[in-house]
Design brief:
Chain lengths: 274, 163
């Protein structure tokens, strides 16, 4: 049906697409409802991580113990995804495929390097999160393809901590800037691994690998964190709108990223004490 | 398209165009006008109904997508004709409303919260109703109403009834 080329869109929870239609920003001629294809609703533990079917509802993720254990950063952001009334219908695949720059699930996917699986006709293919998002509400998913699943990698390190912060006008409204961090420390408190991403700041979520490079292999010190984050965000081109200027977004993202890393490190240290 | 909806415990069959939202279906076809149309793009929360017990925006769902689901509107939360639910009672007592436009959705949101969490903190209540906008800014009394209802429903010594 997608291949027929008559401007059809896929709908599942409708929590991003229907508002766009209400505002006439999207005017599809046909909607293809996939919300009842039960093969696309699953949440399972695999060797490399947690595989989540595209139409799995966000409220399911929010309550799943397996997500808290295997992908703690995803569990951390779930309460920030819309409101309970949005998460009850909104799907994981819908949030990703619509690619709102402020979407928290997309930020985690980019930060942790999730893998997307999609179907095009009878063929199935994969794409890394780093290639998936190309701009605001735009993805590299072929127009005739349907996202079917996403796999979030599980870190096997013993001491993992996560941090997440965002600023928005109202509780759980669209963020002006957000930052997510997941860190693994060794027994001596040395940073073994860091994943840091910022969302809502640029056209799509952005992973800051230079910060990870600056911090991995040493004890995390606040001055180093601040300098690394500042340098990483110095050359980006932030979004700019009525609510938040480009300069504001850069400043906010810098502070939020530092806080997210600090929280993550504190949580990882506490994991040791337990 | 023919759609079967379980509305407030009753099976209702409607013949409806696929483009009609659940909100319009409830209001215009089933004459359940307690679900209110506010922003109609999912922000204000005035159209909130419960779908299988969970709050959802009826303006963001097409009626055909709700086929087979149990839908609770404000008309369905009363224990009997002429009676009010403990949450509705509490809203009356604490004056948890001014113009009343957001009230049905606030009460349904509160029902869902208390069914899940009979002993919510103030922060839990604020978080739950953050999805519902009240432009009379009567939030203080609304929070008070939900806290009062929670206290009374705990006193009933039985789990909150899933509406």
């Amino acid at each position: 049906m997608l291949a027929a080329g008559d401007d059809a869109r896929i709908i599942a929870g409708g929590q991003t697409l229907v508002p766009l239609m209400a505002m006439r920003l999207a005017r599809p001629k046909r909607l293809i409802d996939i919300a009842r294809i039960s093969d696309l609703a699953f949440l399972r533990q695999e060797r490399e991580g947690i595989a989540i079917g595209a139409i799995t509802r966000q409220c399911v993720l929010e309550r799943a113990a397996v997500v808290r254990v295997a992908v703690p950063l995803l569990a951390k952001v779930m309460p920030f995804v819309g409101h309970a009334a949005i998460r009850s219908r909104g799907t994981v695949g819908g949030s990703l495929a619509n690619a709102d720059p402020a979407a928290e699930i997309a930020l985690v996917a980019v930060t942790l390097g999730a893998t997307f699986t999609y179907r095009q006709g009878a063929a199935s293919a994969e794409m890394p999160a780093s290639d998936f998002f190309v701009g605001p509400m735009m993805t590299a998913l072929p127009a005739t393809a349907c996202l079917t699943a996403v796999c979030f990698p599980r870190w096997r390190d013993a001491r993992i901590g996560v941090g997440f912060h965002e600023v928005s006008a109202r509780r759980s409204d669209f963020a002006f800037a957000s930052a997510a961090a997941q860190v693994a420390l060794d027994d001596d408190g040395v940073c073994r691994r860091l994943a840091l991403g910022v969302g809502a700041v640029t056209a799509c979520p952005m992973r800051l690998d230079t910060v990870a490079k600056a911090l991995e292999g040493r004890r995390v010190e606040s001055a180093v964190v601040r300098e690394a984050v500042r340098a990483a965000l110095a050359d980006i081109e932030p979004l700019c709108d009525l609510h938040a200027s480009a300069d504001y977004r850069r400043r906010a993202a810098t502070s939020l990223a530092v806080r997210a890393i600090t929280d993550a490190c504190r949580a990882a240290e506490a994991a040791h004490a337990r | 398209m023919r759609v079967e909806l379980i509305v407030n415990g009753e099976m209702r069959t409607v013949e409806i165009e696929p483009r009609v939202s659940l909100l319009d279906c409830l209001r215009e076809r089933l004459l359940l006008t307690g679900a209110h149309a506010g922003c109609e793009h999912g922000v204000c929360g005035a159209c909130t109904v419960l779908i299988d017990g969970a709050p959802a925006r009826s303006c963001l769902m097409f009626a055909v997508q709700a086929d087979g689901y149990a839908i609770t509107t404000i008309e369905g939360v009363t224990p009997g004709p002429g009676e009010l639910s403990p949450i509705q009672d509490a809203f009356c007592e604490t004056h948890g409303m001014q113009c009343g436009y957001c009230t049905p959705a606030m009460i349904l949101t509160a029902h869902a919260l208390l069914a899940d969490n009979p002993n919510p903190t103030r922060a839990d209540i604020v978080d739950a109703i953050s999805a519902n906008i009240c432009r009379c800014t009567g939030y203080a009394q609304i929070v008070e109403a939900i806290a009062l209802a929670a206290e009374r429903m705990r006193g009933l010594n039985q789990p909150a009834r899933k509406p």
